[in-house]
Give the backbone structure.
Amino acid sequence: MSKIYEALEQAYRAKAGSDKMVTVPHMRKIFSELPQASIEKEMLCLYKNIDSLLCNFDKRIIQFIGSREGEGTSTIVREFAKMSASTIGKSVLLLDADRMQPSHHLHFNFETPHGWQESIMNKDLAENTFHQIDKSLLYVGRSSNSASYTPEIFDSPKFQTFQEMVWERFDLILVDSPPLNSSPDGLAIAPRTTGIVLVVEAESTGWRVIQGTINKIKQVGGNILGVVLNKRRYHIPEFIYRRL
């Protein structure tokens, strides 16, 4: 079965100079069922689409966010991070921004004494914030050891200092944001990124919810690159979908 699937629409205004929407690849129904080579191919296609939209930026901060829990955002951004480091050869920093349900430190099996949001307020903590994954080019930072909401830190001058520090060190910074319906942090981060990828669970998240999320992100000045359709279900054989 083909490993490249149809896609939702993607904003291509910066590249095409209009409001025309174009397509980007999306993920499969159940990520873990795909062979690793297939996952890497999907992620490479997504990387190329993002790269074409942000061709004028040498270094990028890309935010991945879903409207609600269960969209599969963390899985997608994690696989995207691993592919960007191993296949593209970029130095990658994956920032887990979910205070309530951080997951990447559990997946990679590590602990840190504090999170990256804590290091914003105390830059002396920065050296012990990021964990290198198996001597690769991928580093991961946990959000915080506190579940308290503090979106005001993103308006602090210290956040700009932190951003400049990580920009000097890494080629690509990926932010795994909590769902929009569970935390204000995602919207607080959005205008401080190069671009945003919205992750949507197919056949579950309604279009009105998606459009509402897009509108909220735009209202705060976020640059939406596109929408990734995740967990697609094929009710007829997939090869038929490819011919429609």
Remarks:
- The beta strands are 9-11, 21-23, 60-66, 92-96, 130-132, 138-141, 172-176, 195-201, 224-230.
- The CA atoms of residues 99 and 147 lie 5 Å apart.
- The chain has one domain: 9-241.
- The radius of gyration is 17 Å.
